[in-house]
Design goal:
The chain is mostly beta strands and 496 residues long. Helices cover 6% and strands 49% of the residues. The protein starts with a helix and ends with a helix.
Length: 496
């Protein structure tokens, strides 16, 4: 192997170590079999960012960490979840402050670990996993708020750092208190622009430009401070000028609870929004396109029996640069469902999310489902209970076989796996396994075996005093592996 090839492989490995995900595209002159020869190797380092959980004094937050067992990993490594504020840089000396005790210490791959906090002013967290802990590392943040604005169950998957995020479904309407949480994992400050788009286009604001997020710090930004306009449906665009951040929107309502709104999948002509609860009493679709052309979308529901078109909501017209919303009512009508959006004619990139309501007036709770990427190689839901978990899977374009594994419990139990067949065009709330002898919380790992792409979501429910508290997290690929070209193929490419 020549020195050039060694450098190329080393560079790819370094990229994987820093980002948690890397892919090397062959030059245009490369033979077709070069990409096919790429090996999928475990990533060596993963960083996850958790937003500050709640402003309520009567909130309890739990964190659950899980790494699935991955072949080909090293036998060593470490992982920790540390308060972001405890790692803030000292502006005069350049030295970091002494770190506080981690909120949890992750266990070996295959077993979840949990930690808890309570009350207001909880920090955001920066988590790092290396070696055998890194591939597919997942951290779930779950908060129970007993009363007041946003009461109910709130949940979010801690995210990787990035530079561009879209959040359709936010609001500055009366009764809503929405924050964008920005967390910076790096040693230098990040500079961020926040843009708001309503029903008539972009809201005028200079306050959202050039927001500085200090190194190793988490910053909540109240949306109503960025604009005086009251808008029921907003799309929030977070654009990072320099550095990188993790971003999530906390959407809180005075009357109907609240939850975290994760970023929508990258703008695309076709979108999948999986896992609408079968007992949803109201579903609201919010969509946005940033292009110069309007988007016309076909709206279909993937039900347990196949694709159907909701009566009265056959299509959705999305004006360029404007947020469009429509009420779908109780679209699932007592059955599992996922929303499928496809272009009616010309494909225009769109982002979208669903605001889902359960319960009746006075005792309602809301959660959000953003458009998401497919499961891909593997996806994981880290925090599950024996009775409150629903796993929903959909295969919009082709029948697929999927293996679902329930991990050992955080306090004991033995892992169990089941295989399911999801028919083309359907959504199934599968009878997911639970570990035998379960003690504590457990993780569910989803791995497609064959067939078309699979999309998934996990609903966690906990009813308190008649209020149906719930939270929904989608299940995109965990980015636990990186594509590394075979050495001999690199030589043939470089010699051309």
């Amino acid at each position: 192997m020549n020195r050039t090839t060694l450098s190329l492989l080393a560079g790819t490995a370094a990229l994987a170590a820093v980002t948690g995900f890397a892919a090397l595209n062959p030059p245009a002159a490369a033979p077709a079999h070069t990409a096919e020869a790429a090996a999928q190797l475990p990533v060596e380092r993963t960083t996850l960012l958790c937003p500050a959980p709640s402003l309520s004094d009567i909130a309890d937050t739990s964190y659950t960490s899980f790494t699935p067992v991955t072949k080909g990993t090293t036998s060593d490594g470490k992982a920790e979840l540390q308060a972001a504020t405890a790692q803030s840089a000292d502006g005069t000396s350049g030295k970091k402050k002494k770190a506080s005790k981690p909120v949890l210490t992750p266990k070996a791959p295959g077993t979840p670990a949990t930690g808890d906090t309570s009350g207001a002013d909880g920090p955001g967290y920066v988590g790092t996993a290396e070696g055998r802990y890194a591939p597919g590392w997942t951290v779930q943040e779950t908060t129970e708020v007993a009363a007041g604005t946003g009461r109910g169950l709130q949940g979010v998957n801690c995210t990787s750092a990035d530079t561009d995020f879209w959040f359709p479904g936010a609001s500055t309407a009366s009764g809503r208190t929405d924050y964008v949480h920005l967390t910076n994992p790096d040693d230098s400050a990040a500079v961020v622009d926040i843009e708001l788009y309503g029903k008539d286009g972009q809201l005028k604001s200079s306050v959202g430009e050039g927001i500085t997020v200090a190194p190793h710090a988490s910053e909540p930004v109240l949306l109503s401070t960025l604009s005086d306009e009251k808008q029921t449906d907003l799309t929030v665009h977070v654009n990072v000028r320099s550095g990188r951040v993790g971003a999530s929107v906390q959407a809180l309502d005075d009357k109907t609870g609240g939850d975290w709104l994760a970023a929508s999948a990258d703008p695309s002509g076709s979108l999948v929004l999986p896992g609408i609860p079968k007992d949803a009493t109201d579903v609201r679709l919010i969509a946005f396109t940033d292009g110069d052309s309007d988007a016309d979308l076909k709206v279909r529901l993937a039900s347990p029996d196949g694709l159907i078109t909701p009566a009265g909501n056959e299509t959705l017209h999305v004006k360029a640069g404007m947020t469009t919303a429509t009420d779908l009512g109780d679209v699932t009508r007592g059955e599992a469902g996922s929303l499928i959006l496809t272009p009616t004619d010309q494909s225009v990139p769109v982002v979208a999310a669903l605001r889902v309501t359960r319960g009746k007036s006075g005792k309602q709770e809301t959660a959000y489902i953003p458009a998401t990427a497919p499961v891909g190689t593997r996806a994981t839901s880290a925090d599950n209970s024996g009775k409150g978990t629903t796993l929903s899977l959909t295969a919009p374009t082709g029948t697929a076989q999927v293996k679902v594994t329930a991990s050992a419990g955080s306090g004991g139990g033995k892992a169990v796996s089941k295989t399911f067949t999801i028919k083309s065009g359907t959504t199934q709330d599968v009878d997911a396994p639970a570990p035998s002898g379960l003690k504590g919380t457990y993780a569910l790992t989803v791995e497609p075996i064959s067939g078309g792409p699979v999309y998934g979501a996990r609903t966690l429910a906990a009813t308190e005093e008649g209020v149906p508290g719930f939270t929904i997290q989608t299940l995109p690929d965990d980015r636990g592996t990186v594509a590394v070209p075979e050495a001999d193929q690199d030589v043939s490419v470089l010699q051309k």
